[in-house]
Amino acid sequence: MARDRIISQESRGPNEEQLIQSLRPTRLDECVGQRQVIEQLKIAMAAARQRGEPLEHILLDGPPGLGKTTLAHVVAHEMDTSIKITSGPALTKPGDLMPWLTNMERGDVLFIDEIHRLSHSIEEFLYPAMEDFRIDFAIESGMSGRTVNLPLKQFTLIGATTRAGLLTAAMRDRFGLQFHFDFYNVEDLMTMLRRSAGKLSVPAEDGALHALARRSRGTPRVANRLLRRTRDYAQVRADGHLTTEVVEQALGILQIDALGLDELDRSYLRALITTYGGGPAGVEALAATLGQERDTLEDVVEPYLLQIGFVTRTRQGRMATAPACEHLHLPTPPPRVVPPPDEPNLFDEPA
Ligand SMILES: Nc1ncnc2c1ncn2[C@@H]1O[C@H](COP(=O)(O)OP(=O)(O)O)[C@@H](O)[C@H]1O
Ligand SMILES: [Mg+2]
Question: Please, what are the domains in the chain?
Answer without folding.
Answer: 34-180 (3.40.50.300), 186-253 (1.10.8.60), 263-327 (1.10.10.10)
